[in-house]
Amino acid sequence: MSAAQKPVSSEDVLGQKSNTPKVADLLVKAGVGFGAGVVASVILFRRRTWPIALSTGFGAGAAWADCDRSFNPARIPGTRIIPQSEAPPSK
């Protein structure tokens, strides 16, 4: 390998993935779900609380799934992980 193509250590990869704002994503998606739940509760469900809890949970679940996909790329639909021994040699 040349000096320009240094291998990246696994600690650096994990550091890059954990530096992305996962908590901010959770707050935004749960907040959007909360807002949608409040609107649905007031307009459609006679001020019941379950639409608020349900939509907030949907938002938090979407944020959790995004975070899980960033740490485990095998969970991305259509992605195939090729072991290093079977990979074609790089140029």
TrEMBL record:
Coiled coil region boundaries: none
Transmembrane region(s): 26-45
Record's protein name: MICOS complex subunit MIC10
Self-association state and partner proteins as the record states: Component of the mitochondrial contact site and cristae organizing system (MICOS) complex.
Membrane topology: Single-pass membrane protein
Gene Ontology, cellular component aspect: MICOS complex
Alphabetically ordered keywords of this record: Membrane, Mitochondrion, Mitochondrion inner membrane, Transmembrane, Transmembrane helix
Job description of the protein: Component of the MICOS complex, a large protein complex of the mitochondrial inner membrane that plays crucial roles in the maintenance of crista junctions, inner membrane architecture, and formation of contact sites to the outer membrane.
A Pfam family per the record: DUF543
InterPro entries listed in its UniProt record: Mic10
Assigned protein family: Belongs to the MICOS complex subunit Mic10 family.
Predominant location: mitochondrion
Keyword Transmembrane: yes
